Amino acid sequence: MLKIAVYGKGGIGKSTTTSNLAAAFAKLGKKVIQIGCDPKADSTMNLLKGKPVSPVMNYYRDNDREPESLDEISKEGYGGVVCIETGGPTPGLGCAGRGIITTFTLLEDLELFDTYHPDVVLYDVLGDVVCGGFAAPIREGYAEKVLIVTSGEKMALYAANNICTAVRNFADRGYAKVRGLILNRRNVDNEYEKVKAFADEKGLEIVADIPRCQDINDWEDKGMTVIEGDPDLPISGIYLGLAKKLLDEDGQSY
Amino acid sequence: MKQTFALISTYSSDQFGICSALYELGGMSIIHDASGCNSTYTTHDEPRWYDMDSMVYISALSRNETILGRDSKLIEDILDTAGKYRPKFVAIVGAPVPYMIGTDYKAIAKLVEDKLGIPSFGFDSNGMQYYTRGMRDAFKAIAERFATERTISGSKPGERPVRVNLLGVTPLDFGMTGAVGSLKKWLVDHGMVCNSCFAMGSDLTEIAKAPDADISLVVSYGGTGAAKVLKEKFGVPYVYGIPMDASVIAEKIRERAGDGAGEKTGAGGSAGMTEKIGENSSADGSKDIVIIGEQVYSLSLAEALKDLGIKARVLCQLDRVRDSKVNEEKIEFIYTPEEDDVIRETKEADLVIADPLYGPICGAGKLIELPHMAFSGRMFENDIPNLIGDGEQIYNRIMKELKKTDEQKPAPGFASET
C-alpha cells in the first residue's frame, strides 16, 4: 500500500494536485482513498463533481455521536476513489488538530483499510505542521512518504522549509519521510531555478513539474479533475507520469 | 444527557484496565497525567497494591509542557527511571490532557525503546473509555510482543491434557476471590490444563507460552484482543465463557422471591414466585430477572442460572463483543451506555443482579448484590463471590471448537458432551 501525505503553503494547490493524483492512480486501475485533513473540507470536491462528502466533524456536530459505518462519512468519486473529509470545528472555536486525530481513530475503529483494501491512500493536509494534530497523517501507520507542493514564491518555499524541518525533527519517531517536491508553477521569474536550489539544499528531488494551466481551472469549474475531464491533455499526462513513478517505487504494477 | 450518571457510579476507565492487566508482569506503567498522586490509579481499584510490588508512575504533566508539546520532559523522566530500574517493559498510558493535544504515545514508546532497548508500548487511553478497552489493548500488546513463537510441538490433545489459555483475568472483573485458582482447578478436573493466564499469577515467561495452547478461553471482553492475535498468528482457536456454579445466586433469587419481590407481577404473590422459580417454570418469561455487568461474566452467569431453571437477561454498559459466538445460548442481551436506559430496563424487572452501587436505580428491594470491582472499587471487595465451578456448557463449547480443528478429544470430565 502506497501512503502519501501532501503538505504545502495554504493556497499553493495541494487539493488540486492531490485530487488529480488520486484520479491518476484510479485511472491506472488502483483502489484509492483520499482523506482531506483541512477544516475547509474542500480536498475531494473535484472528485465528486462538486457534490461534496459530508465531513466527519459535521457528523459529530449534527448527531452528537460517533458514526457506526463508513457509509455515513465517505463517498465514492471518480474512478471509485473513496473520499473522506475530516472537516473542522466551528471557526474560531474548538481544536482542528484534535479533529484530525479523532477522525483517524474513528477510521481505524471502522476498519477503513480492511474494508476497502486500498492500493493508495492520500492525505491532503492543511498548510503547515502547526501542532500534533497536523502531524497525525505522518505518524507511524499512516503516510510513509511526504510530498511538498511549492511554487518558486518566497513564502511557498519558506513554508516548504518549515515542513521539511518539522518532518525531519520526527525522524527518530518512525514518522514519514519527505519524498520530494512538486513544483506547482505560478510563473514567477526563474521559478525552476529557485525551487531547484531549495531542493538541492535539502537533498530533495523535484518529482513533478506542473505548469500553470488553464485546463485545470476549466475542469475545476465543472467539478472535475483534468484526468476525468480529458486524460489525453498534456497536463493529465504529467499527473499520470507522477502516479506511475510513485507506483513503480512502491513495486505496484498498473 | 448522553452518558451522564446522576444516580450510579461509573466503571473504571481505560487507564485502570491497562494498569490492572499489566500489574503482575514486571513492567513499568507510566500514566502521562497532571496528577501527582498514584492512588487514583492504584489503590482505589487495585487490591494487589499493598501486597504485591508493581512499578506504576505518574508523569506529573504541567500546563507549560502541555501547551508547548514538550514530550522531551516525559521521555527524559522515563529514560532516567526505567534506565535505573530496568523493568521488563515500559507502558506509557494516556490520560485526558495529553489526549486533547494528540500526544503520540506510540512514537514516545519507540524513542524509549530505541534508547533503552527495553520493549515499550504506547496506549491511546484517555480516561473517557472503559477499562474493558484498556485491558483489551494491553493484553493485545503483550501478546503481539511476547507471544512470538511456539515453544513445543508434536503431541496432540488426546495424548495429553488440552492446553488452554485463560484470557482476560484481572481483579477488576474477578476480584481477589481465588477465581484464578478455581479456573485452573476446573480445567484440571476436566482433562485440561492452564497453558497461559493473561494475567493473574503469571509472568512474561508464561505469556510467551501462549502460542502453545490448543485453545483460548476468553473470560472477559479484555481478553479479546489477545485471543485474536493468537488466532491470527498461530491458529489458536478461542471460545468465550466462564464455567460457573450459580447455585449461590439462585438461592438468593429464591430467598428474595420469598420476600415478596414477585408480588408486582402477581402469579400468586411472593410464594407464587418462589414456587415458580423453584419449579423451573420461570422460563415462561413471567418473572423478569436482569443481570448487569461485564458481558462475558454476565452471560456466563445467565447460562448457569438457565441450567438451574432460572431465566435471566443481561444488560451491559461496557464495551461488548459483537461476535455471535459470545452468546451461544441466545440469552437476551441489551447493550446501552446510558443511565436512563438502565433505569427504564430495570424499572419493570422483578429482580436485578448487579453491583450494590446500582441500588439507587433498582431499589434495595429488588437488588441481589453482586459486587464488581470495576464498578465499586474496593468498597465491597470482601463480598465478591467466587462463582467458578460446574460449567458443563463451557466444557462442551471447548470440545466442539477443538473438534472443528480436527484435534482429538481428551478424556472427558463430564459424562456427556451434548
Task: Provide a brief overview of the structure.
The complex is a heterodimer of chains A (254) and B (418). Chain A has ten helices and eight strands.
Description:
- The complex is a heterodimer of chains A (254) and B (418).
- Chain A has a single domain, classed as P-loop containing nucleotide triphosphate hydrolases (Rossmann fold, 3-Layer(aba) Sandwich).
- In chain A, strand 3 and strand 4 form a beta hairpin.
- Chain A is of the alpha/beta class and 254 residues long.
- The model of chain A has no long low-confidence stretch (mean pLDDT 92).
- Chain A has ten helices and eight strands.
- The C terminus of chain B is likely disordered.
- Helices cover 39% and strands 13% of the residues of chain B.
- Chain B has a five-stranded parallel sheet, with helices on both faces. A four-stranded parallel sheet of chain B has the order 2-1-3-4. Chain B has a four-stranded parallel sheet with strand order 6-5-7-8, sandwiched between helices.
- The interface between A and B is medium-sized, with 21 and 14 residues.
- What is the helix tally of chain B? 17
Quantity of strands of chain A, as a count:
8
Percentage of helical residues of chain B? 25-40%
CATH architecture of chain A: 3-Layer(aba) Sandwich
What is the third-level CATH name, the topology of the largest domain in chain B? Rossmann fold
Oligomer: heterodimer
